[in-house]
Amino acid sequence: MSIVARRTAPGWGDRYALGFGGLVVVLLLAPVVRDVLKVLGHAGDPGRAGAGLALLGLLYAGFLTLARVHGPLSVSAADASWVLLSPLPRRRVLRRPALVLLGVGVAGGLALGLGLLATLGAPDQGVLRLAVALTFGLSMTVGGLAVAVLGQASASWDGRLRTAIVVVAAAAVVAAVVSRPVGRAVQGVPVSGAGAAAAACAVATVAAVRLARSRLERIHARDLLEASTRVNRVATATTLLDPGALTWTIEDAHWRSRSRSLRSRRWPSLPAAFAVAWQDWVRLGRRKGRLAVLVASAGLPALAARAMDGTAPVAMASLGALLVAASCAAGARRDAGDPAL
């Protein structure tokens, strides 16, 4: 019997973690479900619908970006050390991570579908519109993760995924600029047309999942090891509530790939307050794309205020400020936490 087949059954700790995680997901989705129940029988405002579609599009683009950057398939540290490099079938080793990834896609798809219905409203045929929205959400997330798995196994698919992310982000920006015409156009689509489009997306998703399942054996062990290292670092940073560590993880991954190397330069003569932040300024200046994303993200709270009520815009502004601080002040925090400096 193989090592994979002899794995022990989940204990009470695993069951507790699974149950607690499910409870957290239910609590997070409860406000969305409440908003969906409110919109049944009512048509949403076109301007708010367009802004909501733009926000959902940006969130979906970020979802695909995270899936591409962090794997999406990875294994535990023990499997990466012992099982991954063994002569076991790669598909069998990746069966459990693939199922976990599928669960993440289903949960994200349900949230996306409910958010889509809450944004557009349901003036009539509420049950049918709910089914169409959930089908769209599941197809987008599960299909996107399947393409990300294909991108992990093939450079050509990775290029297609990057193109899809750019297209989704550009469409979201257009919807944010001209939100009312976009919202009116999407709300004017008949239910039959939306159902046909959702069915086509579902068929394409099934094909992508089947193709990704057949390509699991082609994923190189080096890529899986790197993805596992990144995921473990992210989990550690999340557990320790240290978002600054994520910046260093991304930066290390950037310079480790393609055998990049840095030239040694003299440290500039700056005051102490600026010297510890110099490395972050240099990194942001060298990575102009990240700097552009940080500047553009300043408009997300305003977009959220147009699309949603309540404390969501305030929470998004706080989260954005935390991410900017983690990206621009990681060097200062690292030096401050080092007793040797």
From TrEMBL:
The keyword Transmembrane applies. It comes from the Bacteria. The chain crosses the membrane at residues 16-37, 49-67, 98-121, 127-149, 161-179, 191-212, 291-308, 314-332. The keyword Transcription does not apply. Keywords: Membrane, Transmembrane, Transmembrane helix. This is Uncharacterized protein. It comes from Actinomadura harenae.
